[in-house]
Amino acid sequence: VREQALKRADEDAFTADGHRIQVFANIGSPADVDAALQNGAEGIGLFRTEFLYLENDHWPTEEEQVRSYRQVLEAFGDKPVVIRTLDIGGDKDLPYAELPQEENPFLGHRAIRFCLANPDIFKTQLRALLRAGVHGNLWIMFPMVENLSEIREAKTLLAECRRELEAEGAEVAASIKVGIMVEVPAAAIYADVLAREVDFMSIGTNDLTQYTLAADRGNERVASLYDASHPAVLRLVRQTCDAARNAGILVGMCGELAGDPKMTAALVGLGLQELSMSAGAIPEVKEEVRQVETDPARQLADKALQAEDGSQVRAIVEKGKMN
Ligand code: PEP
Ligand code: MG
After folding, report:
1. C-beta of 51 in contact with ligand 1 (< 6 A)
2. What is the pLDDT of residues 74-87, one digit of tens each?
3. Is ligand 1 within 6 A of the CB of residue 228?
4. Which of 192, 194, 234 is nearest to 213 (CA)?
5. What ipTM describes this predicted complex?
6. Which of 121, 130, 169, 296 has the fewest CB atoms inside 10 Å of its own CB, making it the most exposed?
7. Which ranges carry the PEP-utilising enzyme C-terminal domain (predicted)?
């Protein structure tokens, strides 16, 4: 199976009944691009930009950022590259940022919250993205969004950066898609409202699981509770997919769950159109997509949503594969 999967890694993935499911890679730096391409990534579904900030001892300059983003965009040509804006705070500290200690960092001042409160830092990144966007098919994604005004504020800053760059005579990408991560339960619960302001949504099951189940993703003592297959998490996934479909926008998944080949049929059945994962998982997930029939997958997902817990979900998807 593995051999067959590797042989066909370069081919786009269609279900057995002909629906395209886009299979993308998650990357953490331009150094990951080769592995993504070699494994058949049809695009980048999540470029975590934190590395740029973490590997430096200073806030990365606009030029430094343009260089990084441009490398990735050029490597992928006209294929989509989703670049996520800075997701700092939570468990990710930056020594030079001098972030204040928080009692509950995961519920604190992280990601888009930090960026909106520090517009200079945020605008440096947005300017770099707009400039780099000239060199490929850029999609910008905001992390940890939980309400509409965060999206509006971020888009206002993006528009401001565009005007400034144009006034300076810089070349700026003409059309860029703007989207959000759905990784806070609130965003999934009223995804229909958030969908009005964005071009795409990508579900981050790593955080969505920790927030939905109130189980810290890094705490060993609650590791048995932290389960992305929990039907409550899957219901939020379904709800988000329904909202996106009704709004006519693309919905994907870039959390770890997306790269689990056992879950592929159920994820297609929940309504996901794009799955993004670590490069090594791509060939096998593509091969799984090729086995999927849409209607039975939908029924499989419906059944999983009625399960008692995550282990029952896994038993249901295993059984679904045998039938
Ligand atoms: C997620 O939360 O699922 C996600 C993809 O983002 P990160 O793992 O970087 O928090
Ligand atoms: Mg996250």
Report:
1. no
2. 999 999 999 999 99
3. no
4. 234
5. 0.99
6. 169
7. 7-293
